[in-house]
Amino acid sequence: MSERGAADRGRRGPGRALGVALVAFLLIAALLTMAACGEQAPTFFRRTGGAADEGCPRPAALTGAEFNDQERGLRVLRKAAFRGDFFAQLELGSRYAAERATDKNIEDPIESATWLAMALANEEGFAPINRVNRGPFGGWRPLSRYDDCRAQERSSAYRRLDRTLSRMTLEEQEAVRDRVIYVLSTQDAPGFRTLARLHDGLYGPFGEPQDNPQGREAWGRRGNGRDGLRAATGLFRRNDVDAYLYNYLAVQTGDVGSYVLLKDFERSSPNRTQYGRFVEAKARQWVPPFEFYPNKAPQSGVPFSDESRPRGDSFEYATSRVTELPFIHVGRALRYLGISEIAAAQPTALSKREIESLEAVLGHPMDGRLSLLERVRAIQLAAVNGSSEAQLVLAVMYAEGIGVPIDYARSFHWFEEAARQGSPEAKFALSSYFALGVAGVADQDKAEAVVLRIDSALAGFAPSAARLQAVLAQVSRSQQRR
């Protein structure tokens, strides 16, 4: 009897052990599900970002069948993208890549690459939401569904950007870089800090942490034999000088956090502090690649609108001061651009059609009301397109803080552009820069100042001519005394 009972217990032992193991497994699964806070089921063996169905929900469709719907949808997306919306940036990258047949008329590889790069550099795409300690079984821990889908979106964006850049010339790639730099430079300290990370070798290809899985995969560091996405990872060249420069520019906006980051940057490598004086001088001469976003008019007829509206009190105050500028300068800019036939001396002299033509060129909603910002844009647009008169006016605007915040580097730049076209007023202004030496923008150079002032006088500029006559008279008197 005892032998039979022992045999029965022996047969039941493995079954009980299996039952206990199954119950334990189910309990662990339940605990893991609870740890995920109800966001999703456990992700045991699933590789993050590996499933095609993990893409984040896209914004509601804004593009209808009609052209006006398409134009309106693009402007809404651009407004959100300029303000740092990760998903709007991804959507613009897709729209300009013409992934859908209805977007073929707006296809633009440079614009597509620009917004894909902006999305990859956007902290909203890689900053973790669910910070759970991985523990000894890191691959088994439940993840936020939002983390998962963003990882998939970034992985896809890296591949699409690499394909697009691989088909471009060096000049086209440079255009993509310039556009990204411009957009980020309009975002004050956060934008400059992002630019610093893009050039800092201690971060991932687009400023993400070095351990970011999508960045490591793009570099080719997963050990799977791939060479990496060279075109995408090489868009921004890594060097300490540019990384230092953009950190320094962030500090110049008055942001305290940027000052702390700059000091951390200097301490992160023993060689970085040696660039201090050089970078300080370079920062004073730095100007963004564009006055405003390139307002190309593609075949689709939907121009690239610039949604980087003035930010901060200094921008708002400078824009309000544009009324101090005689309106005739705006009128002459509009005539140079071919928008109006005469140089209007007052805003009321412009017709509704002429104002709407300017708004269409700028990619602004055509409401027929000339805003203060559109007055500034008219002069900037004429200057960019080669009007020496508009270049001179824009230089004065930057020097005085009228319409735009005071920026001596940009002022000097536009005086130089106007002087190249023979403007005697611009040459006289440059001579003052060199005579005084303005905050590192132009080093003091008395000889260069004299040459420019003489050129200005010979071209007939009255104030310079009067100064030259006074100098010659003084020289004549000194010679008579001898």
How would you portray this structure in words?
- The protein is mostly helical and 482 residues long.
- Among the domains are: 36-55 and 66-186 and 288-309, no CATH class; 314-481, Serine Threonine Protein Phosphatase 5, Tetratricopeptide repeat.
- The chain is built from 22 helices and no strands.
- It has helices at 2-35, 67-82, 86-96, 109-121, 123-126, 145-166, 170-185, 188-199, 213-219, 230-233, 240-252, 256-267, 276-284, 312-320, 328-336, 352-362, 372-384, 388-400, 408-420, 424-436, 446-458, 462-481.
- Helix 4 (109-121) runs antiparallel to helix 6 and helix 11 (240-252) runs antiparallel to helix 12 (256-267).
- The radius of gyration is 31 Å and the shape is globular.
Topology of this protein?
Layout: H1 2-35, H2 67-82, H3 86-96, H4 109-121, H5 123-126, H6 145-166, H7 170-185, H8 188-199, H9 213-219, H10 230-233, H11 240-252, H12 256-267, H13 276-284, H14 312-320, H15 328-336, H16 352-362, H17 372-384, H18 388-400, H19 408-420, H20 424-436, H21 446-458, H22 462-481
Order of helices and strands: HHHHHHHHHHHHHHHHHHHHHH
The description of the largest β-sheet is: none
**Count of DSSP strands:** 0
CATH topology of the domain at 314-481: Serine Threonine Protein Phosphatase 5, Tetratricopeptide repeat
Structure characteristics:
single chain, 482 residues, mainly alpha, 0% strand, globular, disordered C terminus
Offer a concise description of the structure.
The protein is an all-alpha fold and 482 residues long.
